[in-house]
UniProtKB/TrEMBL annotation:
Annotated Gene3D superfamilies: Haemolymph juvenile hormone binding protein (3.15.10.30)
Signal peptide segment: none
One BP annotation, GO: circadian rhythm
Stated family: Belongs to the TO family.
A Pfam family: JHBP
Keyword Transcription among UniProt keywords: no
InterPro entries assigned to the protein according to its UniProt record, in alphabetical order: Haemolymph_juvenile_hormone-bd, To_sf
Keyword entries, A-Z: Biological rhythms, Signal
GO cellular component annotations of the record: extracellular space
Name the UniProt record assigns to this protein: Juvenile hormone binding protein ce-0330
Length: 207
């Protein structure tokens, strides 16, 4: 199954128009809005690059519990878009609206999928009902945001320096909504793929 998943990733990430699976590298994200620990944040026109380079580390597939645990990582991925932010981050004030760029190095992800199986035309198909995810960035994250504090370069540079020096804490406090948004979009397309791919044929096709 690991070999099948690994071989399928670059194909699926390119998009499969005949299966209504959209291109996922570069992945277009839905608008993201959250309010966490005093930070009100919006990301529009988000784009994520690097998904095609996912490396599958381990898969645990329990056909009795109808659940699969997938561990994977990507050595480098990049997110960009337009942001609006106000409130506090790391106890420091932040406000502004402009362009956002985030670079991740050594991003490790664990996704647990809960699915059901149904029959169609005598074949078995899987459908993901819900999921949980956990992630860990093991090397670095680099944040860049334009027009912080309405273009005050001195304040903006000072804040970005603090964020980049404390990237682990920033990610711990505010990274989950972003990862949830990415996972939701990817799994939406995975379900489209699964709806046209009998379980009996997946390993035969991609091994």
């Amino acid at each position: 199954m690991m070999k099948a998943f690994q071989n399928a990733i670059p194909i699926i990430m390119k998009g499969v128009p005949t299966l209504d699976v959209e291109v996922m590298d570069v992945l277009k994200l839905d608008e993201l809005n959250f309010n966490l620990t005093g930070l009100v944040f919006t990301l529009r026109d988000g784009r994520l690059k690097g998904s095609k380079d996912i490396i599958v580390d381990n898969i645990e597939w329990d056909t009795k519990k109808l659940q699969a645990v997938i561990n994977y990582h990507v050595n480098y991925c990049e997110l960009w878009g337009s942001y609006t932010a106000s409130g506090k981050i790391l106890l420091l004030p932040i406000y502004g609206h402009g362009d956002l760029n985030i670079q991740f190095r050594k991003l490790y992800v664990k996704v647990t999928l809960y699915y059901d199986v149904y029959k169609k035309n005598g074949k078995s198909f899987a459908r993901v009902k819900r999921y949980t995810n956990d992630f860990d960035v093991r090397e670095s994250i680099r944040y860049n945001m334009t027009n912080l504090f309405n273009g005050n370069n001195e304040l903006g540079t000072a804040l970005l320096n603090v964020m980049n020096d404390n990237w682990e804490q920033v990610c711990k406090e505010f990274g989950k909504p972003l990862m949830d948004s990415v996972s939701k979009k990817i799994l939406k397309n995975v379900n489209k793929f699964l709806s046209h791919s009998p379980l009996e044929e997946i390993t035969l096709t991609y091994i």
